[in-house]
Design goal:
Strands 1, 2, 3 and 4 form a 4-stranded antiparallel sheet that branches. Strand 2 and strand 3 form a beta hairpin. The relative contact order is 0.11. It is elongated, with a radius of gyration of 34 Å. By secondary structure, the chain is an alpha+beta fold. The protein folds into 2 domains: 53 residues; 107 residues, Band 7 domain (Tetrahydropterin Synthase, Chain A, 2-Layer Sandwich). It has 4 helices and 4 strands, in the order ααβββααβ.
């Protein structure tokens, strides 16, 4: 009987009281909830930080390039040259018999009042003259090799830069080429 009493006393000492078991479960639940809240907070911080970088134009595959703002007001699209035919120029210098026929569309910043007419959403007359002159001069002075399909992005960036220099920084959002025939 003495042994039975020792076994019973040992069992009571080994088993925690029921209240201690409840405290352990509550502690585990609280730690899980705190861990989940902490993980959600960190995730929210990371996502908002990343989205802030994207909205400011950073954090992309073209970090070293000046790609301009990614998000802007809808632009005003204007086709260069003849509305139906586009632009037709001789390229490659005076001795070259090469001609370029292209449909080039320029997206202008609608906030530039000196460039875009607010009411009609068209180019101001003096801006239209500058745009056509700059585009024609740029196309005529470009070497034949620079019209390569591999160099199209660089070609568009250079034309955009030339137009922005003539009209003022931020006047042109982007350049789109819808047809391109070099003969």
């Amino acid at each position: 009987m003495a042994e039975e009493q020792k076994d019973a006393a040992a069992a009571e000492a080994a088993a925690p009281p029921p209240q201690s078991k409840k405290k352990t479960i509550i502690l585990i639940v609280v730690l899980v909830i705190v861990g989940l809240a902490l993980a959600a907070g960190i995730s929210l911080f990371v996502v908002t930080k990343m989205m802030g970088d994207v909205a400011q134009g950073g954090g992309g595959e073209h970090e070293e390039e000046d790609v301009g703002p990614r998000y802007h007001d809808p632009g005003v699209f204007v086709k260069l040259g003849d509305p139906k035919e586009g632009i037709l120029v001789n390229v490659g210098g005076a001795r070259s018999s090469k001609y370029l026929k292209a449909s080039i569309i320029v997206e202008f910043n609608p906030g530039k009042k000196a460039v875009i007419n607010e009411e009609t959403h068209t180019l101001q007359p003096d801006a239209e003259i500058k745009v056509n002159d700059v585009a024609t001069q740029f196309l005529r002075s470009t070497k034949i090799e620079d019209f390569d399909a591999d160099k199209q992005d660089e070609f568009k960036k250079q034309l955009k830069d030339e137009l922005n220099m003539a009209l003022g920084s931020g006047s042109v959002y982007d350049i789109y080429i819808t047809s391109f025939l070099l003969q």
